[in-house]
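Subject: 3-hydroxybutyryl-CoA epimerase structure
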Amino acid sequence: MVMSLEARYEEFWRQSIKQLNDVVKATGLPIAPDEKGQYNLWYDVREMRLRFSISVERIKKFFEGLREGKVYTTRCRRCGRYYFPPQADCPYCKASDMDWVEVSGEGELLTYTVINTKPLTYSHYPDYIVAIARMREGFNVLAWLRADDPRKVRVGMKVKLQVVKREPEGYLTYEFVPAEQ
Ligand SMILES: [Zn+2]
């Protein structure tokens, strides 16, 4: 499955580069209309491949938690502020005096948006919902909301933050699900 995704991206880029080369040959400039044909875009002739990597050494308990099916975050011992996703340092106290706490997972939906125009690298997912919920502990969490029917999603509804496996890649992450009423 992952291989076929990669093949799909490769094909997309191969086609894009071919089209760009054709445009440059025909017009002398790497300028072409956007997907909707509305506006002209300049396409950089250099291709940049980018894959983010971030040090997680000081927040590895968070990832160990995901493997246990638990969502942990950090709370500053000095000022009591929660950080989600977890941070090893408190920017208010300028200290690294943190407690690890398991979050309740209980939240109330503040806002959401259904994403049906997706970036290329997310294009293999069904339409997904990006949501922000206020957690019982008093901090906000941004996460996908897994809902069978997006039309039933309402601001103010109770949601539960839980560990899920993101398919088809198969890695552990967290998402909201509607809480059982
Ligand atoms: Zn603090």
